[in-house]
Amino acid sequence: MQKLIIDGKKILSGSIKISGSKNSALPILAASILNKQTTIKNIPYVNDILTMLNLLKFIGLKYKLSKKKNSVEVTNLDKKINTVAPYKLVKTMRAGVLVLGPLLARYGNAKVSLPGGCAIGTRPVDLHLFALKKLGAKIQIKNGYILASAPKGLKGTSFRFPSISVGATENVILAAIKAKGVTIIENCAIEPEIKDLINFIKKLGVKIKIKGRKITIIGSMKEKKITHKIICDRIELGTYLIGGALTAKKLRLKNVDPKLIKSEIFILKKMGVKMKVSKNYIEIYKSSNIKKINIKTAPYPGFPTDLQAQIMILMTQAQGISKIKENIFENRFMHVPELKRMGAKIEIRNNIANISGPCALTGAEVMATDLRASVSLVLAALIADKRTKINRIYHLDRGYQDLEKKLIKCKAQINRV
């Protein structure tokens, strides 16, 4: 099993090109089931994307992937279609369930394995199924699979989500664009990735608008040859912003849209982080006087749960006690025991973490438990004394393209063994 070996206390400098958004690309790839030919640009070359492409291939689509151009062309010729998403392809990635909506919409039935992914919480598919049932789908769960059918097609309707869910919002959008009539969904997730999906869908001629947490869809898509460029990955951007604040003489982050992370930039500046924000790049500098802060994770536009583990590392260097209230996932503090092995002073009470700083971290052998926890250990290792060994780094490869190459280019000392 591969591991990263990192020697800390290196001052970083240079530039990093931020990749396209994994969480935007995955639902758009699922949407390609509904179209004849789709070209997606700025796609990240990470394992979750490769898994989704293999899933599309299993279903019967064809694709041509170019890592050099960061683009993929997906073709659906409607021949030998298999409306099944098997456990072996869905078990490592919760986004696999996103093929449920488009398969149901286009072919009238689907058999999709209950999803896997990081072990950070239960993340049930209840809301996905609730929404699809509202559109007229008949659904049952049997032997670990979702069995869905709509032999007479889906029908537009109006309903309100009982709670906000990114994945369920995406799945019902993908189903509703071929439903008969008008669909109105309230209490939706409004993350930038969902708005990117909506912009993609508009290219198929679908009339869809978003106002607040309300989305209105008139199912009238037209199959055509389209090209779409994915937005930048705001979680990767936020990760390297925090890394730069911890370690960089000057780090320039390119291929970005700062508007996507307004709340994160506001919080980092409030903590005393020095940065220069331009239209398509951000320069970040090591900040010596980090201030304590209290934050809580929340659906967009709140602070993202996917940056909680990373900002915790910055809090270990702040003056005083900072607090994080985790409101999204119940198991998202699994990185804390590993950070405590490195000398971090963190106490957990229910869903609140109290982080005392400033605290000198020391290299240790640690284990990654999920995608974002693994990158938080990388950030901790970059500022720790001596050497850190991070095990189970396959989590990293699910969501960060060329992480060590990008950091090594900026003078970090990292080896994969």
Quick structural gist:
With 417 residues, this protein is of the alpha/beta class. The protein is 31% helix and 27% strand.
List keywords for this structure.
417 residues; alpha/beta; UDP-n-acetylglucosamine1-carboxyvinyl-transferase, Chain; four-stranded mixed sheet; 14 helices; 31% helix; globular
Describe the 3D structure.
With 417 residues, the protein is α/β, with parallel strands linked by helices. The chain folds into 2 domains: 3-19 and 232-416, Enolpyruvate transferase domain (UDP-n-acetylglucosamine1-carboxyvinyl-transferase, Chain); 22-229, Alpha-beta prism (UDP-n-acetylglucosamine1-carboxyvinyl-transferase, Chain). It contains 14 helices and 24 strands. It has helices at residues 22-31, 47-59, 87-90, 100-107, 126-134, 166-176, 192-202, 234-247, 262-270, 308-315, 336-341, 371-383, 394-399, 403-409; strands at residues 3-7, 12-17, 37-41, 62-66, 71-75, 84-85, 109-113, 138-142, 145-149, 158-160, 182-186, 207-211, 214-218, 225-229, 248-254, 274-277, 281-285, 294-296, 320-325, 345-349, 352-357, 365-367, 387-391, 413-416. The strands form 6 sheets. It has a 4-stranded mixed sheet. α1 runs parallel beside α7 (192-202), α8 (234-247) packs parallel to α10 (308-315) and α8 (234-247) packs parallel to α12. The longest helix is centred in the middle third of the chain and has 14 residues, at 234-247. The radius of gyration is 21 Å and the shape is globular. The chain starts with a strand and ends with a strand.
